[in-house]
Amino acid sequence: MLIARRPRPRDPFMSAPRPDAGSFARRQRGVFLIEALLGILIFSLGILALIGMQAAAISAQSDARYRIEAASLAEKMVDTIWLNVDRTSTATIQTSLATFAHMTGGTNCAFTGTASSNTLVTGWVTEVRAAGSGMPGATAAMQQIAVNTDAGGYNRVDVTVCWLPPRAAAASRHVISTYIN
User: Fold this and answer.
1) In a domain? residue 43
2) Which of 19, 54, 96, 115 could form a disulfide with 23 if both were Cys (CB 3.0 to 4.6 A apart)?
3) Domain count, the chain
4) pTM of the model
């Protein structure tokens, strides 16, 4: 006599039979390689971002150095004018200040007018343009000393130092103003 066996009830939490270990390994083949490539990609993007930040920091440092040097050169010219003005009378102050005027026309570092023949000014312009120690991309026409000796000008002197930083489209400038009496 044969006894009929009742089928075994299925576990409701298992919807499909469990795969064997071999089929699981076949499905996972290459996943580690993709994970490794993604990790390398993320790491590379981080390194590129650091390099970009370092380049920006170096550029900002160079700009700051040029601005400090421009301020120093402008201050040097103001000191030279202060020390070499003839203060015998109001008329002699105005006459001696006029000899320091250099390229008094134009704007935005494209100055026009007469270059000063004063040796102190020409020496200063040469120093501003000097290779290695001067301002990068500076020319004589980019430097200006504007003198206003009119009655309402109060002997105002504006010294402008302009330069063209490396890889810059427009010139940078530093202006210092003083009154000489």
Assistant:
1) no
2) 19
3) 1
4) 0.72
